[in-house]
Amino acid sequence: MTNSILSKTLLVCLVQAGSVFFALSAKAQSTSEVGIGLGGLVYKGELAPSYQFRNNRPAVTAFYRKDISAPVTLRAAVMGGLLRADDANVKGVNGNTAPLPAARRANMKGNLIELSGALEYNFFDFHNRKDKVHFTPYVVVGLAAFLANTTTQSNAVGAESFNKKGSVLGLAVPAGFGLKLALSRHWNLGLEAGARKAFTDELDHASTQSPVLVNNHDQDWYFYNGVSISYTFYKIHCPDSYKENKQLLR
Fold this sequence. Notes:
Blueprint (H helix, E strand, L loop, with lengths): L1 H25 L4 E14 L12 E11 L4 E15 L12 H6 L1 E17 L12 E20 L9 E19 L4 E12 L22 E14 L5 H5 L6
Antiparallel strand pairs: 1-2, 1-8, 2-3, 3-4, 4-5, 5-6, 6-7, 7-8
């Protein structure tokens, strides 16, 4: 009985949420944006088990946004950047290099290119110049395809299998949050930080390594954080009276 009530409650909530979404979507928006961004790309995987700010390497992005309702924006983007990791930067509890990384002494360098499509949910209508609030926090989730070219090396005895170089083509799920600020009617400033779950363990060529040297059950991640500038285009709707009698426009 409890499960039945819970299922019905969830169904009602989903129907109501869907009704709100479609009601907002029906109110068509007439804005779109093109922009560029500059930030950092960070790898997380076997050679960097946790997020390490020191592994930030330059990355750039270009994107197109289309507002389909006041809160919902669709985004297409291309992003490229460098990847870097080193066992020497993985510290243990005593502050020294952790035992396994110290034994492997491996490092990874490379680059990554990503194509993505995402949905952004804006908490405020920051394009509305009638409002006093011209900024909004937002969350984003999507799907991406990436191509990574990396080289992993080790100078430790017994870890020669880490000396690999190659390309990896895969899928990832981007998710993150950010802030948009309308500087003027057309120009916007943005900040964003997000993670990409990669469905592969081959960014660092670790999936085929010996279980003695790696954890084969963890897949890789990469992160992007950066600042962007974008330009907003507005589509002016012509009233029906002018459409029917174009001479009024003269």
